[in-house]
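tool_log.txt
---
The assistant was asked to compare two proteins side by side. It first ran the structure predictor on the initial sequence, then on the second. Raw inputs and outputs are pasted verbatim so the downstream comparison step can read them without reformatting.
(1)
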Amino acid sequence: MVASRRVTMIHFGTSGWRGVVGEEFTFSNVRRVVDAVAMVLTRQATGGEVVISYDTRLLSEKFAREAVAVLTHHGIHTVISDRDVPTPCLAHSVRERGAALGIMFTASHNPPEYNGVKLYTRRGTPAPHELTDAVEAEVAARWATFEDFFVPQRQLATTAALAEGYIARIEAGIDWDAIVSAGLVIAVDPLFGTAREFIDRVLLAHGVPTHVIHTTKDPYFGGYAPECVAQNLAGLRDKVREAHADLGLATDGDGDRFGVLDRRCRAIPANLIIALLTEYLLQRRRVPGAVGRTCATTRLVDRVAHGQGRQLIETPVGFSHLAPLLDSGEVGVAAEESAGLGVAPHLPERDGIYAALLVAEMVAVERRSLDELIRSLFARYGTLVSRRVQLPLKDTTPAALDRLAARTFTEFAGILVTRQERSDGLLLELADGSWVLGRLSGTEPKLRIYAEATSSRRLLAMVREARRLVTTAEEEEGHVRNR
């Protein structure tokens, strides 16, 4: 079965375990998960402390302190952040300290009612499936016999300022002279999340004219999901216009994803920013290694990689597949469609703050606007436009996707199919360079359809055909169940 997920009481998806607070994500379930983490660490004889942090979501800090109580009960030394910090900051801290594990309480860009847990290895990479599967299995095996009682050992708990080492890393990784000399004016929107007092702090420290909005800590994120999509950046758009800014830079709820507005207040698709930064990093920065991308990411990245004489490595969706390649140096630049970018010399993890600042550096170094850079990119590599559509997950959807994956496609939307891949949903690549992917989200109850084509008209036709196929398969599955 390609599409259906293994049914467990606690499930780690492509970016951790997430759930609605008070429903799946409860204090009791958090203690179950952290207790399972402690058991796995003890069984593996993994020495060292565990670093814990949290985002600005409702109860995140309290969940983090529950984790401290559970881990110290098991005799494990813990270090908890003195404030909410971005996820890449937690990843950097784990790596810098040589800790056994990192635990981040966040649901990233999900709506405010969600919370979640991300685990990080000693190398600062997202936990591999081997570790999260072991935690899931431990939770499931002890579900009925779990004793929800812990005695914390306060002498094993330490509080630390995790931000400074990460900020120093950011400081050292950006060409500030270029940004300052270009005279850029920048507007910043951390979307009420953990990147406040990070991206704006370093810009202001270097004398860059910076205009900031949404810098307060709001667990409801202004009433919408803290995701860097165009509809959520109205406030930043107004600020760019008001300040006559050259760029608008946004980060999501936990700071690992980015959003960009140009000086005309237009939201630039993440795939285009990824392609531009990939070329900039390879050509200008001379970042060594191959280029990695997930199967849902723009094929402009492929064209850039090949144009620069670099190998292209494709992985399933989920940055946990790319992070070890960054850590080993096999991959120098890694990207995923949902505004995730990792650069090996910086961190083996996506970092929205670093990516946003790289956009400012790129514009400053190239001395051209984003609009000019995009036109030049298309002139060299051809035009590709992409889109992601999210559909609500029905009871019949997983089986419907399995039904579609079992088919052999010779054509799609009137174009010859040249490649069919079923390792992560159903991916079809077409003879004209376009492609479509349907897969279940690993973090939300949704079916996601990704598509890319050489024109907007062609893209629309592909999305319509994909939705029609899914709807038909869902109806067929419903008929089968009702017999």
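(2)
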Amino acid sequence: MRDERDDEEGRSDRPAGSTLARRDVIRLSTGTVLVAAASIACGKRSDAPPAPAVSQPASPGVVRLASVPTAVEGNLLPTLVAAFEKASPYTIQLASNDGVYNLARAGQVDLAISHYGHKDAEAFVMDGFGEWPRTLFSNQMALLGPPEDPAKIRGLEDAGEALRRIAAAKAPFVVNHIDGVRYLTEVLWNAAGRPDRAGWYLDEGRRKDDAIRFASDKGAYSFWGLTPFLRLRREAQLRLEPLVVGDPLLQRMLVSIVVKPAKVAGVNVAGAQALQSFLLSPATQALIREVRYPGVDGVQWVPGGRHNRTAILPLG
């Protein structure tokens, strides 16, 4: 599932130290064919709705969970899945892929997790394939920069002030053209006082790994998700460090969506709802704050359950 990779951005390799011991994260093909029924009667096309996507009925004891890579790479979902399996009769099949909603439409998913702004999430719900999204947690973005930090932004909690200092120092800044990140950059440029972009603001349409490698080569600053940056730093030598992470604007919300069996055959609704309820429970939301990317200190995941309608939140 690597497309925008929703933003995200990364691979589905199980992170070192993952607690998901009983199975590897699985990658599912987006090539599954959807079958729509169109019957012809008396020479006229039927107005009957399309038939649900063809799929093998899921085992009642198995929940098929598909997530964008960030929540898997960052060790969060492997940790939460392990805790859920200990506390419930269900077994989880966890898939890491950016095309979670393509897989869900193809009948391969019971519960999907993505960023709220995933390019396919809105259509998935509006087309009747999924229930209302439930906010779960936020992942952490970072303003990255060279270790020498010529703009002196290390440790700031105001990303707008950080960008103002970068502009004032004429330190190079590389725009990362991931969906959402480009928008955030514009917000912070306005917050910084709309400084003249000449001489420091490098907007070449680069994105993801390409943008970050380029920033490293140029000794420049850039924005990216903390999890994919740490993944890339394990694979390549980068002269970049996370310098600003404290601004709430650098958090991005992820949601869960239960797939509707009326549209997709074989969905384990009971299992999907049980897992979603577990993820929203106060104990799990507290656990989310404690999960760390292997070898990295500091909060990387912010609980987001409280942003839902209160009446649906479990208290036990």
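---
observation on (2): The chain has two domains: 40-139+252-312, 141-250. Residues 25 and 185 are 33 Å apart (CA to CA).
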